Amino acid sequence: MSESMAGRGERDEPQGPDGPGRESDATSGDYTGAVYGSLLAASVVATAGSLGPEFSRVRLALLLIVTGLVFWAAHVYARLAGERLAHGPATWRKIGRVARAEWGLVEAALLPAAAVLISPLFGLGPVGAAWLALGIAVGQQTAWAVWGALRAGASWQLASVEGVVNLVLGLVIVAAKAAVGH
Question: Can you give the pTM of this predicted structure?
Fold first, then answer.
C-alpha cells in the first residue's frame, strides 16, 4: 500500500489523533482498506473460481480489479456523504484525501489479479490460478492486519492476535471455496 495515502488537513476536517486537521489514515497504521480489500479479493476469487475452468484468467483478473474499483468508489462516496453532515460539503481537496485513504481497496486486488495472470508460468490451470490468488489474498490480508497493528503501536503479541483473527477469516473463505468448488 502506498505511503502517499496520508490525509492532508483542511480547516473543516476533524482533528484526528495525529494532530489538528489530520486523520489517522495510512500514516498511523490504518490499513483498513487493504485488509478489507484483501478480504473482498479473496471472496471474489472464492466465488468466481468456483465456476471452474470456463472462467478465464483474464476474466478473473478483470473481475478482481473492477470489483476493487467499484468498492473503492462506493467507499469514497459513503465517507464523503457521511462527513457532509458533520463537516460540510465536500471540496476537491477532501475528495482527493478520501480517495487516497480508500485506495487500499484497489491495491489489495492487484497482487491476486497479477497472480492469476502469471499463473501459467507456474504450470497452473485456471483452478490452480484461483487457488494461488486466494492464497495471496488471504496472506496479504493477514500481513496488512499485522503491519497495521504494529504501525499503530500495538505490541507483537496484539499484532499476532490480529494476524490470527485475519487468518481465520481468510480460512473461512478458503473453506467456503472448497465447499462450493466441489
Answer: 0.76
Distance of alpha carbon 146 from alpha carbon 175, whole angstroms: 22
Dist. CA 162–CA 110, nearest whole Å: 23
> Is the distance from CB of 144 to CB of 34 less than 8 angstroms?
yes
Query: Which position has the grid cell 496472506?
Result: 139
DSSP 167: H
Q: CA-to-CA distance for 54 and 17, rounded, in angstroms?
A: 49
Amino acid at residue number 105 = L
Contact criterion met (CB below 8 Å) for 114 and 139: no
Q: Which residue has the higher pLDDT, 95 or 19?
A: 95
Question: What count of residues does the chain have?
Answer: 182
With left for phi above 0 and alpha for psi between -120 and 50, is residue 125 left, alpha or beta? beta
